[in-house]
C-alpha cells in the first residue's frame, strides 16, 4: 500500500461559520479514506489556552496585546508539546485538522493592532509548520450572527454583527497577504452541511497521496 502522507489542515472562518461541524465531517471522511486523523483547536485546552478563554469570558481583564501574545504562546505549545502536539501527531502519521490556526490571529488580532506585528509574532509558528491548506469557510456575517444568537446565552468578546463583518474583512486582508506563499481555499459556507462538506472534500481529496 502506498505510504499515506498525513495532512495538516487549518479550518478558519468567522464565529458561527460552522467550523466545528465541518471539522467532524472532514475527520470522518479522512478516516473513511484510510487516513487516521484527529481534530484539535485553538485556543487549546492548555493552561495558556485557558487564560485566553478566561479573558474572553470576562473572568480575567487582559489587554488585547496581552491576548495576542498568549495566542502566540498557545500556538507554539500546541505545535511543540510532546507526546501529543501537532508536530508529534504528524510525525506519527496522523493527520491533524486544526479548528483555527495563525490565520485567525492575523484576522482577529490584526483587526486591533498592526498586522505586521501579528505576522512577526507568528513567524516562529509559520516556520515550524505551515498547514498544507487553510480552508476558509465563508459565511455571510448576518447568517453567522443569527446562528450565534440562537445558540448561546452570553455573547463572547468579538461577537457582534459589526465585529463579525470587520473580522471577515480582516480575514480577506490576511488571506491576501499569504496567498502567494500558502495554499488557501475559500469555501462558500452558507449552503447545507452536506454542500459545505462536499466543497471541502473537493479541495482535500486532491491532496491525499
Ligand atoms: P471559540 O470558543 O473556540 O470560538 P469558535 O467556536 O467560534 O471557534 O473561541 C475562539 C475565539 O478566539 C474566536 O472568537 C476567535 C478567537 N481567536 C483569536 O482571536 N485569535 C486566534 O489566534 C485564535 C486561534 C482565535
Q: What composes the largest sheet?
A: 5 strands, parallel
| Overall body shape | globular
Number of helical stretches of at least 4 residues: 10
Percent of sequence in beta strands: 5-15%
Q: Which percent bin holds the helix content?
A: 40-55%
Number of domains: 1
Provide the succession of SSEs: EHEHHHEHHHEHHEH
- CATH-level-4 superfamily name: P-loop containing nucleotide triphosphate hydrolases
Tally the beta strands: 5
Structural features, described:
This protein is of the alpha/beta class and 209 residues long. The protein is 52% helix and 12% strand. The chain contains 10 helices and 5 strands, in the order E-H-E-H-H-H-E-H-H-H-E-H-H-E-H. It has helices at 19-32, 47-56, 64-80, 86-91, 102-108, 115-121, 123-128, 141-151, 161-178, 193-204; strands at residues 8-12, 37-41, 95-99, 133-138, 184-188. Strands 2-3-1-4-5 form a 5-stranded parallel sheet, with helices on both faces. Helix 1 (19-32) packs across helix 10 (193-204), helix 5 packs across helix 9 and helix 8 (141-151) crosses helix 9. Thymidine-5'-diphosphate binds at residues 15, 19, 41-43, 71, 99-100, 104-105, 108-109, 158.
Amino acid at each position: 500500500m502506498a505510504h499515506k502522507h498525513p495532512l495538516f489542515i487549518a479550518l478558519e472562518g468567522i464565529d458561527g461559520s460552522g467550523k466545528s461541524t465541518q471539522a467532524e465531517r472532514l475527520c470522518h471522511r479522512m478516516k473513511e479514506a484510510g487516513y487516521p486523523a484527529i481534530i484539535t483547536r485553538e485556543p487549546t485546552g492548555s493552561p495558556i489556552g485557558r487564560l485566553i478563554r478566561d479573558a474572553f469570558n470576562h473572568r480575567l481583564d487582559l489587554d488585547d496585546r496581552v491576548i495576542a501574545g498568549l495566542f502566540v504562546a498557545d500556538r507554539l505549545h500546541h505545535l511543540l508539546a510532546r507526546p501529543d502536539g501537532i508536530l508529534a501527531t504528524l510525525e506519527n502519521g496522523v493527520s491533524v485538522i486544526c479548528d483555527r490556526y495563525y490565520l485567525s490571529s492575523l484576522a482577529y488580532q490584526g483587526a486591533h493592532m498592526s498586522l505586521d506585528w501579528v505576522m512577526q509574532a507568528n513567524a516562529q509558528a509559520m516556520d515550524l509548520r505551515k498547514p498544507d491548506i487553510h480552508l476558509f469557510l465563508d459565511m455571510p456575517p448576518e447568517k453567522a450572527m443569527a446562528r450565534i444568537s440562537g445558540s448561546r446565552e452570553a455573547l463572547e468578546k468579538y461577537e457582534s454583527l459589526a465585529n463579525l463583518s470587520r473580522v471577515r474583512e480582516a480575514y480577506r486582508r490576511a488571506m491576501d497577504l499569504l496567498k502567494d506563499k500558502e495554499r488557501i481555499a475559500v469555501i462558500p459556507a452558507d449552503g447545507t452541511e452536506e454542500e459545505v462538506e462536499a466543497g471541502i472534500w473537493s479541495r482535500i481529496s486532491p491532496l491525499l497521496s
